[in-house]
């Protein structure tokens, strides 16, 4: 059984592009020491997961893939999801304890001076939603953060220093910073209204629109 579990884990990790593999390691921080995670290769991460989560490594991996939006891999390898996270249900795993301490006026959801969006019933963004937007953002992430999300350049530079060489994590942490600041106002419709004026991949707005329909 352990042999099958190890083989499945390795196949899952090998199916991930390098950037998503690094994102998966990032999501494990706080559960596994960074000193073990950061240098770990795919086979080494399999060994770490088997040691840290004996008999439960596939379930843990499924939860991470869910956050990355890779439900296709969960289905392909028939990985067990946590019961409290059914497929297709918008949840927010690994909620950031810093949330609720955001700074700034939550009525200013976009760039400075923007007119607040009217109240909607749009749901709040989960981390897996932010990751999927992050994967679609291009090289102009700092421009988006400053001009359209109203974030400070110094904070964006700090994010870049903390996650060297990983643009997807830069985008992801930028969006998390915006979500922390907006607190309960960090909804799908609010982010969509913020990003509409930006020069972005149209797929981002299409994705957010699809979340509105879910």
From TrEMBL:
SMART domains the record matches: DEATH
Death domain residues: 149-196
Compositional bias of kind Basic and acidic residues: 93-104
Listed PROSITE patterns: DEATH_DOMAIN, DED
SUPFAM superfamilies named among the record's database cross-references: DEATH domain
Domain (DED) ranges: 4-79
Biological processes annotated in GO: regulation of apoptotic process; signal transduction
Signal peptide: none
InterPro entries: DAPIN, DEATH-like_dom_sf, Death_dom, DED_dom
Gene3D superfamilies to which the protein is assigned, alphabetical: Death Domain, Fas
Chain positions covered by the region annotation Disordered: 82-123
Protein's name in the database: CRADD protein
Lineage: Eukaryota, Metazoa, Chordata, Craniata, Vertebrata
